[in-house]
């Protein structure tokens, strides 16, 4: 790239920053209208001008339009005033459009939603503005979100104050009201649960949409802060550019500001220095010559920023001797590859008779013998509610699960050094799992026969926006077998009875910065629910002076694996905790541990010496149900309804079938583990409490760990024959390898919720086999 081209790029990025700056100055004031030190900011930007003039002056003077632009920015900084937030006044969405490429604000309203056209199998658009709630659990509509926004704007507490709304979601009605409700009846009162930041404090409110009143207003009393807004995450990445020290360091490292990409990194909690101030760390990368900037870290450069004021609190720069890794072979995009391999021919599922599922009233999914309510959520990603399965004998729809969701994700990295020790993410509670959901790619994320659903959320000023194609629903057939049996002609009965297994999959994918998570809720006709998590995306890597392992004297000091020249993939864990409010044939259930134990025969009783027996123990209290899985202490874990029996007398139930059982190996007194204490066991059982839904607590950001699932469970409340919630944690240990470079093949794990004496017999005994006349006739491609 020649100098003129390079200056053009810098000119473009600075113009972009000039427009962003006007938005940032407002967003800075949203949370706490602290007057910035305008003279210091202006002085710093004059110094930025000088840095570029000095650096480029030895080759060629920077163009006049560039210096003029920098001076314009300087003058803008001089003129900064702390008015009431434009976002709060309702004028902030234009700024948001410039600032937030991840938030697809669509205008004019109504917002639209992608659907699948059954005729063309192509996505179509449906307008959201006319949406009305049909079910007590339906998410807030565009109209309702706008109503909440107006109520907040005119409420005495918010008038003439800067504020930000960190969460605006449906406050679900009492469970008993939802269970009693029948289609066609009036809905229970619609309310919004709002989390706001005002004047440096966190507030929890209930807004009654019918009365237009704020009916509850509490100040957050626990440690920690709410989930960051998208505006928080985006604006803070620009904050370091206000520091001349930061810009000087970047330039000295040989990186143009035009090539800079920075990430907001939650810093956990490690002591008093982080108290009473909402802080975040920012680390940066070089985008030069690759889209995969994660593989080009500016190692050792960490900026501590105040999230409320956007003040640069501290800059740490300890990695100047570490080169920025080369961009070669890092770009994963299809268009960037010199060639490609077609290892398999394309596969598509065709349904000539149409799909077997319907989505009624936008959120009620009906398929085969299943029915459930589905909605996107900014924190959990998706919420599956009121899951019921049809009894093949009676035709009755029977309750299985009242509510299931991703409660929290804990991702600790195993590098204790200065630039890495704090990387102990809580991806749902800190970043918002649903906020990080990217549009699903038809034909690749989801098959051709998929149905798509958007999420409609609220920006920091309450304005509705859409996460398009956030969830997909599709039927899946992978050649699996539902059941089979064959008999040999030797028996006189030549029998071949086989039934195909077709399942229904609900999928969402979240890209939390570098990492991608794919979460599937898979429903099977035999009554099983499989919850699966796939991990893909890009490793968070560390820069290193080493280009080859023959240069390394102590491999353990790498804290990971050398993946490429100057690139280390750091060892880390993933723990995904699920909330499962099981209502097996009703809300009152019990948790039964069925332990397999070795037993011995009496002398002379049998040629056998030993066998296994099943010993059943009903958990009386929460501590009885804290389960650490052990390979040589096998158990089954049943959720049963003790008041409902099969015709032969067994209590009806479902069992948790564990998998993905990597255990957390951190010391329980390690500060990250205190916050992530919900991973100390793989299974917990608690009595239903509508305030206990998030395993890391309501306010996770910088929390101290005093409001976690472990704290609740240690109260040791009674759980026998009660409305209970099961919590299960999928665990992954990840020691990176070269196959993970530059992008990771997907690795998955799952666990099952499986009927156990729930049905009188095999519930899919009577399903028919496939026959040719029911299937489409597909012609092979000419090249086949």
Automatic annotation (TrEMBL):
The keyword Oxidoreductase applies. Residues 135-217 form the Copper amine oxidase N2-terminal domain. Contains 1 topaquinone per subunit. Keywords: Copper, Disulfide bond, Membrane, Metal-binding, Oxidoreductase, TPQ, Transmembrane, Transmembrane helix. GO terms for molecular function: copper ion binding; primary methylamine oxidase activity; quinone binding. Residues 348-764 form the Copper amine oxidase catalytic domain. The modification 2',4',5'-topaquinone is found at residue 515. The active site is at residues 427, 515. GO terms for biological process: amine metabolic process. Residues 226-325 form the Copper amine oxidase N3-terminal domain. SUPFAM superfamilies: Amine oxidase catalytic domain (SSF49998), Amine oxidase N-terminal region (SSF54416). Its EC number is 1.4.3.-. Residues 115-138 are annotated as: Disordered. Topaquinone (TPQ) is generated by copper-dependent autoxidation of a specific tyrosyl residue. It holds the Pfam family Cu_amine_oxidN2. Homodimer. This is Amine oxidase. It comes from Sesamum radiatum (Black benniseed).
């Amino acid at each position: 790239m020649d100098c003129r081209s390079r200056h053009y790029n810098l000119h473009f990025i600075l113009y972009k920053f000039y427009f962003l700056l006007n938005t940032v100055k407002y967003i800075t004031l949203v949370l706490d209208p602290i007057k910035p030190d305008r003279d210091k900011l202006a002085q710093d930007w004059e110094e930025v001008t000088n840095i570029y003039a000095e650096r480029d002056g030895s080759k060629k003077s920077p163009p006049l339009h560039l210096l003029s632009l920098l001076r314009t920015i300087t003058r803008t900084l001089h003129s900064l005033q702390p008015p009431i937030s434009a976002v709060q006044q309702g004028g902030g969405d234009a700024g948001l459009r410039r600032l937030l490429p991840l938030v697809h604000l669509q205008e004019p309203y109504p917002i639209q939603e992608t659907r699948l056209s059954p005729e063309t199998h192509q996505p179509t658009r449906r307008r959201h503005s006319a949406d009305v709630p049909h079910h007590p659990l339906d998410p807030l509509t565009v109209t309702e979100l706008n109503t909440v926004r107006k109520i907040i704007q005119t409420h005495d507490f918010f008038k003439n104050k800067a504020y930000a709304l960190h969460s605006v979601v449906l406050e679900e009605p009492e469970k008993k009201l939802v269970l009693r409700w029948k289609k066609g009846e009036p809905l229970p009162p619609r309310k919004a649960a709002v989390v706001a930041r005002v004047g440096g404090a966190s507030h929890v409110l209930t807004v009654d949409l019918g009365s237009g009143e704020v009916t509850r207003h509490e100040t957050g009393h626990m440690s920690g802060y709410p989930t960051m807004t998208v505006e928080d995450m985006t604006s803070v990445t620009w904050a370091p550019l206000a520091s001349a020290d930061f810009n000087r360091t970047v330039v000295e490292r040989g990186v143009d500001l035009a090539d800079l990409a920075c990430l907001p990194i939650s810093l956990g909690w490690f002591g008093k220095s982080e108290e009473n101030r909402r802080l975040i760390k920012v680390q940066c990368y070089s985008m030069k010559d690759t889209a995969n900037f994660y593989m080009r870290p500016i190692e050792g450069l960490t900026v501590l920023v105040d999230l409320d004021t956007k003040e640069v609190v501290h800059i740490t720069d300890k990695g100047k001797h570490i080169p920025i890794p080369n961009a070669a072979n890092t770009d994963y995009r299809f268009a960037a590859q010199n060639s490609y391999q077609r290892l398999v021919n394309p596969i598509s599922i065709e349904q000539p008779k149409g799909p077997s599922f319907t989505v009624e009233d936008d959120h009620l999914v009906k398929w085969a013998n299943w029915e459930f309510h589905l909605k996107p959520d900014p924190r959990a990603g998706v919420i599956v509610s009121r899951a019921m399965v049809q009894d093949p004998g009676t035709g009755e729809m029977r309750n299985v699960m009242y509510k299931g969701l991703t409660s929290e994700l804990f991702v600790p990295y195993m590098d204790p050094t200065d630039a890495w020790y704090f990387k102990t993410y809580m991806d749902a509670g800190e970043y918002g799992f649903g906020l990080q959901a990217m549009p699903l790619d038809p034909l690749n994320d989801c098959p051709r026969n998929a149905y798509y659903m958007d999420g409609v959320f609220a920006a920091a000023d309450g304005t509705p926006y859409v996460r398009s194609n956030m969830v997909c629903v599709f039927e899946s057939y992978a050649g699996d077998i539902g059941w089979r049996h064959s008999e040999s002609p030797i028996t006189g009965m030549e029998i071949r009875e086989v039934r195909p297994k077709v399942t229904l999959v609900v999928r969402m994918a979240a890209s939390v910065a570098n990492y991608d998570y794919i979460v599937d809720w898979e429903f099977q006709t035999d009554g099983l629910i499989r919850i699966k998590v796939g991990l893909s995306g890009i490793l968070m890597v560390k820069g290193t002076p080493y280009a080859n392992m023959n240069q390394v004297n102590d491999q353990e000091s790498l804290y990971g694996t050398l993946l490429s020249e100057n690139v280390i993939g750091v060892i880390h864990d993933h723990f995904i905790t699920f909330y499962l409010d099981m209502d097996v044939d009703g809300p009152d259930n019990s948790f039964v541990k069925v332990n397999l134990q070795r037993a011995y025969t009496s002398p002379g009783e049998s040629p056998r010496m030993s066998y296994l027996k099943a010993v059943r123990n009903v958990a009386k209290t929460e501590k009885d149900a804290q389960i650490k899985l052990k390979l040589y202490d096998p158990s089954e874990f049943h959720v049963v309804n003790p008041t409902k029996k099969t015709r032969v007398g067994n209590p009806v139930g479902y069992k948790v079938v564990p998998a993905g059982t990597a255990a957390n190996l951190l010391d329980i007194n390690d500060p990250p583990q205190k916050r992530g204490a919900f991973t100390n066991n793989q299974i917990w059982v608690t009595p239903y409490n509508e305030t206990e839904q998030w395993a890391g607590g309501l306010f996770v950001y910088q929390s101290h760990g005093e409001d976690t699932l472990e704290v609740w469970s240690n109260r040791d409340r009674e759980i026998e024959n009660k409305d209970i919630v099961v919590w299960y944690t999928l665990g992954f240990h990840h020691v990176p390898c070269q196959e993970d470079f530059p992008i990771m093949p997907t690795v998955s794990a799952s666990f099952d919720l499986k009927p156990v004496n729930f049905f009188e017999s095999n519930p899919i005994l009577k399903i028919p086999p496939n026959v040719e006349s029911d299937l489409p006739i597909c012609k092979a491609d000419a090249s086949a």
